[in-house]
Amino acid sequence: MVPIVIAAVTIIALGVNQAPAAQVSYYEVTRGAHPHDVAPAPDGTVWYTAQHQGALGILDPKTGKVTQIPLGPGSSPHGVIAGPDRAAWITDSGQNAIARFDPATKAVKLFPLPKDFPNANLNTATFDRKGILWFTGQAGVYGRVDPATGKVDAWKAPKGRGPYGIATTPNGDVWYVSLAGDHLVKIDTVSGDALMVPPPKPGVGPRRIWSDSKGLLWVSFWHTGEIGRYDPISKAWKVWSLPKSNAGCYAVYVDDKDKVWLTDFVANALVRFDPATEKFESFPSDRRGASVRQILGRPGEMWGAESGTDRLVVVRD
User: Fold this and answer.
1) 85, 92 contact by CB (below 8 A)
2) CA distance 32 to 41
3) Is 295 exposed, middle or buried (0-12, 13-18, 19+ CB in 10 A)?
4) Terminal C-alpha separation, the chain
5) 222 CB contacts (<8 Å, ≥6 apart)?
6) Is 261 buried (19+), middle (13-18) or exposed (0-12) by CB count in 10 A?
7) How far is CA 240 from CA 18, 220, 229, in A?
8) Residue 285 Cα distances to 95, 147, 306, angstroms
9) What distance lies between CA 310 and its chain's CA centroid?
10) What digits encode the pLDDT tens for the residues 58-74?
């Protein structure tokens, strides 16, 4: 399958200078997959969660070839990340388990949640600096998996429902955001205790979170169409509004150059924000209803999953 390539000159929302040209490419995946999350894999391929088909998808960008690995009966995968072991780690809400896919052996291994945490509605995962995987569940759960022992721990989230995006800072701190609970949480990675941090104003709906190279936390505000930056040292917030939308800021990812990437559901676009210049650049999809729910990158590439069009999208500099 040949990818669709569009040479795009990005649109400047603030300021008048023309942005550098960037190439936007689209890759069709299995029809009906509803790709939710995406992760560039260590071997150069790209993983995605085929949420509606209970599978992990694998795209080879060089050829456009797509394969899907069934994850198990009742599977409904949400998130996928690459682990330090070069395996794909998946939050599977359908099986109420963390799944590990080994690219070498093609084996899928499940790490079920404790029985007193059924129907956690697993969402997103991150690895801390000690190789422990931490995860969220929208039903009001957060927890961890020790890959070395297979032990799974889980805790009830403060204020109940809502745990969503989760990320690790350069110094190893683990933070998650609660969409329904409207707050941030710093997890004590030893005890599992949760320290809540309020948003800059009520009702923003923090959905995803990512750290830059300095440990500053970037948070997408779903309800208000804003991007917030929280400094854990000074405990100070700074907030910027999306240039075209007052709602629908879903995903956030900070690349290797400390540029902040966002998804804008209302404008149907990927957005890049430069904190140094405070300028936004927009990359609208060429199809309606793209609904990019999560984004991840590697140097020179930013990948997203268009859940509404059964495609993956990449912006290459």
Assistant:
1) no
2) 22
3) buried
4) 23
5) 179, 204, 205, 206, 207, 247, 248, 249, 250
6) buried
7) 21, 10, 9
8) 32, 38, 9
9) 17
10) 999 999 999 999 999 99
Burial class (CB in 10 A: 0-12, 13-18, 19+), 9: exposed
Q: What is the pLDDT of residues 110-158, one digit of tens each?
A: 999 999 999 999 999 999 999 999 999 999 999 999 999 999 999 999 9
**Confidence (pLDDT) at 21:** 76
Question: Which two three-digit tokens encode residue 89?
Answer: 């780690």
Q: Are 304 and 263 a contacting pair, CB within 8 Å?
A: yes
| pTM for the predicted model, two decimal places | 0.94
> What's the one-letter identity of residue 283?
F
Sequence-distant contacts of 103-107: CB under 8 A, at least 24 apart: 103/41, 103/43, 106/69
Length of the chain measured in residues: 317
Residue 254: CB partners within 8 Å, gap ≥ 6? 210, 211, 212, 213, 218, 260, 261
For 70, what's the count of Cα atoms within 13 Å in the CB-facing half-sphere?
A: 3
